[in-house]
Amino acid sequence: MVNGLKGLLSKGSKGIGIELSPDRINIAQLRRQGQKVRLASYATVPVPEGIFQEGQIVDQAAMAELIQSALAENKIKAKQAATAIHGGRDTVTRIIPVPAELDDRELRDMVLNQEAGLYLPFPREEADVDYQKLGLFVDEDGIEKVQVLLVATRREITDSYIQTFQQAGLNLDVLEISSFSLIRTIREQLRQFGSSEAVAIVDIEFESTEISITVDGVPQFSRTVPIGTFQIQSALSRAMNLPASRSIDLLQGMTIPLNLDSSGRPSGGNPGTAAMLRILGELADELRRSIDFYTNQGENLEVAQLLLAGPGAAIGQLDEFFTQRLSLPCSLIDPVATLGLDTTADLPPSLRPGLGVVLGLGLREA
Predict the structure, then answer these.
(1) Mean pLDDT per segment of 10 residues, for the chain of length 366 residues?
(2) Which helix (H) or strand (E) holds 154?
(3) Is the dihedral of CA 307, 311, 316, 322 positive or negative?
(4) 145: burial class by Cβ within 10 Å (0-12, 13-18, 19+)?
C-alpha cells in the first residue's frame, strides 16, 4: 500500500484538502478523534468556464479568489492545504525495476537522473519527479530487483498550483496525483482483494475519466480518457433540445435503463437516454481496452472488479450498465461510508461518489 511520498508528494500536517476541477472546487477539513475521523468542514463552489481547462489552471488570480471566497463564506480557517493534479498528458505514474543492491543515494540518483527521462513524454528538465520504493522481486533472469513507483508532472503545472495557492494565502504542503488521493480514501475497501487480484478504479470527472488499475493499493496501470460528465451531459442536452449547461444536476438525476434491445439501445426510443448511452458505450469500450492492455502484459493477470467514483458515478444504475457491458463485477464507491466518517453535513447519495479525492486530501492533513 502506498503510504506517503516525499517531495512532490510530501506528508501533510493539520490543514485542509482542496480539490480543483474545471467545474467545482471541493474543500474538506478532517479531524481525527481516536480511531475515528470526523468531517469538521465541507464546502463546494462552482468554477465558471475559462478558469480551469484540460487539467490546467488558466486564470490563477480568479481561481485564488474563488478559494478565498469559499473559505471565508464557510468560515474555514487554515494556513496549509493539500491538493491534487488530475491525471492526463501532463502527469506520469509508472512502476520501474531497479537493481536491489543500490543504496538510497544511488537509487535516488538512478531514478531521478537516469531512469525518469526514459518514461516521460516531455523533457526531463521540464518535469518535477518523485518516487517511492516498493517491494523486492526476482525477475525472469533470477536477479533480485526492487520496484519503484515513479511520479512526474510537468513543472509548469505544479508551479501554477503552487502560485495559485500562494495568491489564496495558503501554503501548499501536499501536491499529489488525484488517483493517489482516491486510493487513500478507499484503502480499506481495497484490502478485501487478494495480493494477486487487480482492481480497476474508474473516476468519472468533468472533462475526463481516470482509470487506475491497482494491486495491493499500488497503481500498476493508469490512463486518462477524454470522456467525462460534460460530454455525457452535452449529448443529453442536445438530444433533448435543452440549452448547454455545465451543471450535471440533470445527469445525476437520470437512471440508465437496463432493458436494451439487441443493438444496445433502450426500448422506448427516448432520444436523451439513447444519446447518453452512446457516450457511456464509448467509455465502456475504453475501459475494455485499458483492461485488455493490462491483462496482456503478463500471465495470470486479471481484473477482479471495477470500482466507480467521481461525480459521474452518481448516474443511476451505471454500475449495472458496466457490469453488463464488460461482464465484470462493478460497484459504486461511497467514500463517506468507506471511511466510517462522522459528519453532521448533509451529504446526499448523489454527491458522495465525487468526494473520494477531496476526502483523501483531507486525510493527509488530518
Answers:
(1) 39 79 96 87 95 93 98 94 93 92 92 91 94 88 90 95 97 94 94 90 97 93 95 91 84 80 59 91 97 88 94 94 95 93 81 95 91
(2) strand 144-154
(3) negative
(4) middle
Q: Which of 279, 240, 228, 225 is nearest to 256 (CA)?
A: 279
CB 335 within 8 A of CB 356: yes
- The structure's pTM equals 0.91
Rounded to the nearest 10 degrees, what angle do helices 178-185 and 356-365 cross at? 80
Give the number of other Cβ atoms within 10 Å of residue 117's Cβ. 15
Beta strands 80-85; 171-177: pairing state: parallel
Amino acid identity at 206: F
DSSP secondary structure string, 107-133? HHHIIIIIIHHHH-SS-GGGEEEEEEE
DSSP code for 356? H
What is the chain's length?
Answer: 366
Q: Give the residue ranges of DSSP H helices in the chain.
A: 60-73, 104-109, 116-119, 155-167, 178-185, 187-190, 229-239, 249-252, 271-295, 318-326, 335-339, 356-365
Dihedral of CA 113/215/297/328: which sign? negative
Helix (H, G, I), strand (E, B), or coil: what is residue 104? Answer: helix
pLDDT score of 262: 53
Question: CA–CA distance from 247 to each of 19, 23, 45, 107, 333 (Å)?
Answer: 17, 8, 12, 47, 22
Say what the pLDDT of residue 270 is.
80
Q: In angstroms, what CA-CA distances link 327 with 69, 112, 291, 318?
A: 46, 41, 12, 14
Evaluate whether 30 touches 366 at the Cβ level (below 8 Å): yes
Residue 176 is which amino acid?
Answer: E
Decide: residue 311, CB within 10 A, 0-12 exposed, 13-18 middle, 19+ buried.
Answer: buried
Pairing of strands 330-332, 303-309: parallel
How many angstroms separate the CA atoms of 179 and 217, rounded? 11
pLDDT at 187: 93
DSSP annotation of 265: P
